[in-house]
Give the backbone structure.
Amino acid sequence: MALLNELYQEIIIDHSAFPRNEGTLDAGTHFAEAYNATCGDELTLTLLVANNFIKDVKFHGQGCSISKASASMMTEKIKNMTVTKALEFSKNLQKILNGDDLNPLDEEMMGDLIALLGVRQFPMRVKCATLPWHALDDALQCLILP
Ligand code: ZN
């Protein structure tokens, strides 16, 4: 188990040090910002949605490694998902991070995100890990008007 924790930590450190899809989409269709007062994490998210698919996504975040890593992994995960599927995935993941049991199917679907499961032992950090997913939920409700 110690070895597994080390591996998870490496995944989190890697994503927070070298965030994937960082920045802002100039041609984004959806936008949200989120703030976690408990830890001070800030995050903005832009999405490009076309034909009900998330074609592209970028985030800009300031805060702890957990929130950054979660955002970075999220962008990789949801790119090319349908909006419906992304919302479903987000809802399920937030439940799991908040302590719901996960079945083998969830484990497979989560991929690298499984590295975030450690936060379940630290209720304060759950908010860090779920922040980007709250932002995603908000963004998908928030169409940028041309
Ligand atoms: Zn945080």
